[in-house]
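Exercise 7b. Backbone tokens:
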């Protein structure tokens, strides 16, 4: 006798498809699992008959994941900058809080989708009982209520803002007490300067160009044939623009699109063709710096010097931007930090310039032994 294949239904609780076997004793299933049936019973008893929409958690999970990525980026930059262990551990604490938020929302989302406590616990190497006791409905709600809104003032570590996605980075400012001649990262006692993510850098550069042009977002959007709301999301770091849009914004604001190309390539993980000559290498190096300069709202050399805690001199800054050649790594390192960039992003290109440029063409006024 051929077994009855059953009837395919959609669970009214989690919206998953399941097969209801027919011809069996007992009442036919209306839900895919006992868990979904029990949840529906609890909602009905509470006077809420509407089925949960698990997808409502997706945006929050993406937001928390973005926060985690930015916190990790700040941790990496601070480690590269040889920050104190106390400051590094503060970043670790921020990451731990974001991870707990992520776990809470993921558990609630999984339960709304009908995933069992056993499945969720196994993914975290926890028993189902322990996970159930940790993330009760009230515990998850309280955790989300304590989570700072993206509209609130950003948290700080050591007096330095911890930047979060969808927040326009401020222009360069220096609240530290400069230490004249301090060029050694080991001796740098200032708080770690969080690096901006590539998306933040590009958004800030485009936003600066738009403000500098004096035109409105609506006018800018009309000139490149896109929706004003799309331009707004780009400026706020919520969307990564295509190169067509990025180039269009630059030209509409009377800027050189080539200055934005290194930032755009970094955002989209596009490899830059390796330079074939010393001149090409130097041009790519300076284009990268000009992009960072735009993202920092084009501070003047004196502002950059102050942002570097006087580790740089005005002639060194001028030489880096205008040549000839490229400066040494200590100068590059401090300049990128002063512009809220990540030195590791420019390191491969700088190393290429060293391969193509004879060592004697490099100039520096920072002692080489300052970097070990």
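Sequence design result:
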């Amino acid at each position: 006798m051929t077994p009855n294949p059953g009837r395919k239904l959609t669970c009214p609780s989690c919206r998953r498809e399941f097969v209801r076997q027919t011809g069996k004793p007992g009442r036919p299933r209306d839900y895919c699992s006992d868990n979904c049936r029990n949840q529906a019973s609890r909602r009905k008893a509470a006077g809420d008959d509407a089925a949960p929409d698990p997808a409502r958690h997706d945006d929050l999970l993406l937001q928390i994941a973005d926060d985690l990525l930015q916190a990790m980026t700040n941790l990496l930059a601070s480690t590269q900058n040889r920050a104190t262990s106390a400051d590094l551990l503060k970043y670790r604490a921020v990451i731990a809080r974001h991870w707990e938020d992520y776990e809470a929302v993921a558990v609630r989302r999984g339960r709304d989708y009908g995933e069992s406590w056993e499945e969720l616990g196994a993914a975290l190497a926890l028993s189902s009982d322990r996970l159930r006791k940790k993330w009760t409905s009230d515990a998850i709600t309280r955790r989300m209520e304590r989570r700072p809104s993206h509209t609130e003032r950003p948290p700080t570590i050591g007096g330095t803002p911890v930047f979060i996605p969808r927040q326009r980075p401020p222009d360069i400012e220096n609240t530290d007490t400069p230490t004249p001649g301090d060029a050694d990262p080991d001796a740098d006692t200032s708080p770690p300067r969080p690096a901006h993510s590539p998306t933040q850098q590009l958004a800030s550069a485009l936003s600066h160009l738009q403000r500098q042009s004096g035109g409105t977002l609506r006018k800018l959007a009309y000139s490149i044939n896109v929706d004003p709301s799309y331009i707004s999301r780009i400026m706020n770091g919520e969307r990564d623009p295509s190169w067509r849009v990025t180039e269009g914004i630059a030209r509409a604001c009377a800027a050189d699109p080539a200055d934005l190309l290194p930032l755009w390539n970094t955002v989209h993980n596009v490899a830059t063709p390796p330079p074939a000559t010393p001149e090409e290498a130097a041009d790519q190096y300076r284009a990268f710096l000009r992009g960072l300069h735009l993202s920092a709202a084009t501070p003047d050399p004196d502002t950059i010097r102050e942002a570097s805690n006087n580790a740089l001199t005005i002639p060194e800054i001028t030489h880096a931007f205008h040549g000839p050649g490229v400066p040494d790594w200590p100068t590059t390192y401090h300049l990128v930090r002063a512009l809220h960039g990540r030195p590791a992003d420019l390191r491969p290109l700088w190393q290429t310039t060293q391969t193509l440029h004879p060592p004697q063409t490099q100039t520096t006024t920072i002692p080489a032994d300052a970097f070990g």
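Instructor comment: Residues 149-192, 358-372 have pLDDT under 50 and may be disordered. The first strand starts at residue 7 and ends at 10.
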